[in-house]
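re: ur msg from earlier - yeah i can do the zinc ion complex, just paste it... oh wait u already did. ok heres what im feeding in:
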Amino acid sequence: MAKFYLTTAIDYANADPHLGQALEKIGADAIARYRRLRGDDVHFLMGMDEHSQSVVQAAEENQVPPQEWVDRMAVRFEEFYQRLECSHNDWIRTTEPRHRRAVEALLGGIREHNPDDLFIDTYEGLYCSGCEEFKQESQIADGRCTEHPTLDLVPKKEENHFFRLSRHGAELVRLIQSGEFQVEPAIRRNEIVRLLEDGLQDISISRSRFPWGIPFPGDPDHTVYVWFDALINYLSATGFPDAGYERLWPAQLHVIGKGITRFHCVVWPAMLRSAGLPLPRKVWAHGYVQWEGAKMSKTAGTAISLESALERHGPDSLRYFLLREVGFEADGNFTWERFDERYVADLADGLGNLASRSLAMLVKYREGVVSTTENTTSLDQAGLDALEQYATRMDVLDLRGGLEAAWSLVGRANQYIVETAPWTLAKEGRGAELDTALGTLARCLYRLALMVSPFMPGTAARLRDALGQDEASPAAWESGVAPPVEGSRTRRIQALFPKEQRAKTI
Ligand SMILES: [Zn+2]
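and the outut:
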């Protein structure tokens, strides 16, 4: 069984999760579920980034100590992610002792392997409190952070511990271009290679007189800079530095947003190299959820609450919509109109209608029992083609492409029902042809349940249950070739995507 360790970015514990964060977690969860379906031994990590300045501010505004605040936020975030059906195996928080140990051990590893990579110097620059970092020239437009155009940059000067990032640039270019360390999609890889080729500056990795953080080993007046601390979470969760952490490390995949590629594709691999540790295999940087063409943000007043998006048509529909319409590669638009359109066209009238009609006919004409028929109709061939296309797309993390492959089969199957008109076959007593049609439709639903399961786990479970499949034994991907539905007792289901629910929530 191949090990597959994947992670998402950890969120700042300063406010409720938003739709952009939800997209990332849903996308990573679809990848995790797909890898499990393919038989991998998946370890899926999510968690919270709890040491930032913004956390201290939020705690002050709410008049509670920072620890109490982050405890409260961690519960809220995990509740939201459970409602979004995230199937993470571990939940890390950077205030946990296991994380502090790993941060200390990683710094110890750098000291041991590359002592010259750590030094003390004065830092002077423009600081963005939204990013929690000093911004470089290229990250500033009109005197403001390109990620946070509504916030003021603050001039800061202090004596800090530094990490000699500049020493690692050339080797990182080589590792990325050779594919040993993969940065995807290509547009992000090209950005990072350009940035590396322009040359790197050394970075400050501590803050003085900022008590909310991990004390810098050997210098209690300093805490470890929040980003340096946060990146190490991926390693902390493996049990590092205890023996056995290599069972999980290196990670197969870090899923992040495109705004933090510099940290994940430059700083993090350089830290690991310096400490003599292997690099993650791949970083995938998704785009942003936009609202009418602009980045959704609370500061700009264009944020849709995750709560309202979840309530609109339920978690499965939100997962589907975000990954199909917004996608997991470039930026994509969110509007209520498109959400409602796709809910009706793709889900209610598409997959939902196909499932209701097929299962209703099985019950009406064959008391729900799937006859033994050969696996050779044009719809079976379309199903096998869709499975292959789906896997090809999903293997390269093209989640939208995976959904398109599945929905091409939905369209083909609804067309098949019109063409074969099983009700006419029943009326005319053409029993063998009717068995063939109903059998191939049952196999088609089984294949769709497989393909849909990483995206809409609740819907897939209802479909499988209606097909008489035993939930105790989870479906294997290979079963899609010859779905074991013959002789199964199927039953009708209530609409998977009711339209009246939609009317009620608008
Ligand atoms: Zn910023």
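cool cool. Residues 128, 130-131, 145, 147-148 surround zinc ion (CB under 6 Å). ping me if u need the other ligands too
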